[in-house]
Design brief:
The complex is a heterodimer of chains A (about 325) and B (about 325). Chain A is about 35% helix and about 20% strand. Chain A is of the alpha/beta class and about 325 residues long. Chain A has two domains: about 180 residues, Thiamin diphosphate (ThDP)-binding fold, Pyr/PP domains (Rossmann fold); about 130 residues, Rossmann fold (3-Layer(aba) Sandwich), CATH 3.40.50.920. A seven-stranded mixed beta sheet of chain A has the order 3-2-4-5-7-6-12, sandwiched between helices. Chain A has a five-stranded mixed beta sheet with strand order 9-11-10-13-14, with helices on both faces. In chain A, strand 6, helix 7 and strand 7 form a beta-alpha-beta unit. The longest helix of chain A is centred in the N-terminal third of the chain and has 15 residues. The model of chain A has no long low-confidence stretch (mean pLDDT about 95). With about 325 residues, chain B is an alpha/beta fold. Chain B has one domain: Rossmann fold (3-Layer(aba) Sandwich). Chain B is about 40% helix and about 10% strand. Chain B contains eleven helices and eight strands. Chain B starts with 7 loop residues before the first helix and ends in a 16-residue tail after the last helix. The chains are: A alpha/beta (about 325), B alpha/beta (about 325).
């Protein structure tokens, strides 16, 4: 069934909330406003304000509250209006959510989803355009998901809600309106499983979230030029499905990793390290990374465009690897 | 004066609880000197009346949560002293299998939801526990202990606002021991003379209590626990107390920031001494009772140390256990 990424998220939460009364949604403007990006449209009408909880602008406070509620047996979904605001809740996420199970010797658990849009949209400025997934991936005790398609978004969000750990679920503002086929009926997608989104033999591109769409466009164009690229979406960034990437690299011998986040200490550096360790002998050339530039996001359109990976840079990276440039 | 709430068994129980914490903490300091305990160790000596008085007013299924000076709350909640000491030793038999340590004691079956070591960071968790019990329509309350040093933190204010806004059944117990580490309240808190006023500014009912008087703490708690259980929302208690020891083991009993005379002055209002006087002057107990309690508690603490000492360290194969839940 064709639906938008936004509708897929809405369906996932709606189905899960109908199934399990322990699940509630909490965040800024999730109720009567219907969500800043309308992801929770119709929720307060269906589930009531007890389960669709509008909060004051206090990310540390309501994220901490949700963690406490999870410790007492509820399954909260925290909506961050944008992932940027998660910085205000980092103490709660890193020091409490991620550590409580371990510090307590397994006595307490924090079944919690923290979701919202990450990465740049159109000229939102430096404080609203960040890709912070590497920060979250760095912390033991967290799982991190960044789906690119409506089908994946729905299946992975349902799995995230059913998981007994804190899960950071990163959406993207520019993905909300994108459409795709979503499986009919009840389904979930397991965490930690990548998917080959396009098969190819000449090079592998790993890309997630919004960057997957870019990678697929680049692959289309390269195909017309005779270069067949395999495109892999890890979907879950932690735990990362290394074997699927390794299998592809063993076939193609070339790897490009595309991410929107900053270059230095970015997720791509970790993926590259994992692939060097597991498949060094299969690589015909050094791994290429296409990343965001190491600058606070500028507002001005041409500067912003220059700071974010685009199709031309992905194509150039593949051609460099294939020796056709 | 004999209050209706004064009963020999009750009072001797409260005394025993405070004595257990006192002797446990003294022994912990000894074990730290012997390097059996490492890292940070914050003793509760001088503040026992607050944990014991407050927790005496709770039901077993109510929640309690604390900051990093948490041994007293955990023991008052009824945790096994051997398991607590073993946790301080970092042993596999510790409450948290050696993964938590002094500042992160957790005893889930006793609804002791943990000690947390980022100042102010556990106060939102307490509102979450209370949110959950309200959501589940259970008549439970949550009590949250923290020092006055947490009061200026942003997380405390966010939590107070949410608790008041949503009328959550949470009782905030501010243990005002006058110093955040070495900084006196008057150099850290604008409303230092009325810390409870911070809570009132959010519309939360608040009261100050003598934190050296275990009966005063318990009686106030009994009242406010029933209010919270009955749906009247949060309450804030400012319990005036004093830390007889240093902030942690790296801080002498009195440092540059306070005088020996000041510490001695407060020691005259030792909570154990005050309760003992009350018991004796009301003929609810005799010296023999206290001697007996010393013997009993001494044995418990000795046994706790023996248990901790004889327990094995966790195997290295435990390292990655419980990073993630099943």
């Amino acid at each position: 069934m064709l639906m938008s990424y936004r509708e897929a998220l809405n369906q996932a939460m709606r189905e899960e909330m109908r199934r399990d009364s322990r699940i509630f949604l909490i965040g800024e403007e999730v109720g009567y406003y219907q969500g800043a990006f309308k992801v929770s449209k119709g929720f307060v009408e269906e589930f009531g304000p007890q389960r669709v909880v509008d909060t004051p602008i206090t990310e540390a406070g309501f994220t901490g509250l949700a963690i406490g509620a999870a410790m007492a047996g509820l399954h909260p979904i925290v909506e961050l209006m944008t992932m940027n605001f998660g910085i205000l809740a980092l103490d709660q996420i890193v020091n409490n959510a991620a550590k409580i199970h371990y510090m307590s010797g397994g006595q307490l658990s924090v079944p919690l989803v923290i979701r919202g849009p990450g990465s740049a949209a159109h000229q939102l400025g430096a404080q609203h355009s960040q890709s912070l997934e590497a920060w979250f991936c760095h912390v033991p005790g967290l799982k991190v998901i960044a789906p690119a398609t409506p089908h994946d978004a729905k299946g992975l969000l349902k799995s995230a809600i059913r998981d007994n750990n804190p899960v950071i679920f990163i959406e993207a503002q520019l993905l909300y309106g994108t459409k795709g086929d979503v499986g009919d009926g009840e389904y979930t997608i397991p965490l930690g499983v990548a998917e080959v989104k396009r098969a190819g033999r000449d090079a592998t591109i790993v890309a997630y979230s919004k960057m997957l769409l870019l990678a697929l466009e680049a692959a289309d164009q390269l195909s017309r030029e005779g270069i067949e690229v395999e495109v892999i979406d890890p979907r879950t960034l932690k735990p990362l499905d290394i074997p699927t990437i390794v299998a592809s690299v063993k076939k193609t011998g070339r790897l490009v990793i595309v991410e929107e986040g900053w270059h230095f200490c970015g997720l791509g550096a970790q993926i590259a390290e994992s692939i060097y360790a597991a498949a060094f002998d299969y690589l015909d050339a050094p791994i290429q990374r296409v990343t965001g530039e190491d600058v606070p996001m500028p507002y001005s359109r041409p500067l912003e465009n220059a700071a974010i990976p685009d199709k031309a840079r992905v194509i150039e990276a593949v051609k460099t690897l294939c020796g056709t440039q | 004066m004999i209050m209706p709430s004064m009963d020999r068994v009750d009072l001797l129980f409260l005394y025993r609880q405070m004595l257990l914490i006192r002797r446990f903490e003294e022994k912990s300091a000894e074990m730290y000197a012997l390097a059996k305990i490492a890292g940070f160790l914050h003793l509760y000596i001088g503040e026992e009346a607050i944990a014991v008085g407050a927790i005496a007013a709770l039901r077993p299924d109510d929640y309690a949560i604390s900051a990093y000076r948490d041994h007293g709350h955990c023991l008052a909640r009824g945790s096994d002293p051997g398991q607590v000491m073993a946790e301080l030793f970092g042993k596999a038999t510790g409450l948290c299998q050696g993964k938590g340590g002094s500042m992160h004691l957790v005893d889930a079956p006793r609804r002791f939801m943990g000690g947390y070591a980022i100042v102010g960071g556990h106060i939102p968790l307490a509102t979450g526990l209370a949110f959950a019990t309200k959501y589940q329509t259970l008549d439970l309350v949550t009590v949250c202990f923290f020092g006055e040093g947490a009061i200026p933190s942003g997380q405390a204010h966010e939590a107070l606002n949410l608790a008041a806004l949503w009328k959550l059944p949470v009782i905030f117990v501010c243990e005002n021991n006058r110093y955040g580490m070495g900084t006196p309240a008057e150099r850290a808190i604008a409303l230092y003379a009325d810390v409870a006023g911070t809570a009132r500014s959010y519309g939360i009912m608040a009261e100050r209590v003598d934190g050296m008087d275990v009966l005063a703490v318990r009686d106030l708690m009994r009242k406010v626990v029933e209010q919270a259980r009955g749906g009247k929302g949060p309450f804030f208690i400012e319990a005036m107390t004093y830390r007889f020891m240093g902030h942690s083991m790296s801080d002498p009993a009195h440092g540059h920031y306070r005088t020996k005379e000041e510490v001695e002055e407060h020691r005259k209002r030792d909570p154990l001494l005050l309760l003992k006087q009350t018991i004796l002057s009301n003929n609810l107990g005799a010296e023999a009772d206290f001697i007996q309690l010393e013997l009993e508690v001494g044995e418990v603490v000795t046994a706790a140390v023996r248990f901790a000492d004889e327990s094995p360290f966790p195997p290295l194969s435990d390292l990655y256990d419980d990073v993630l839940a099943e």
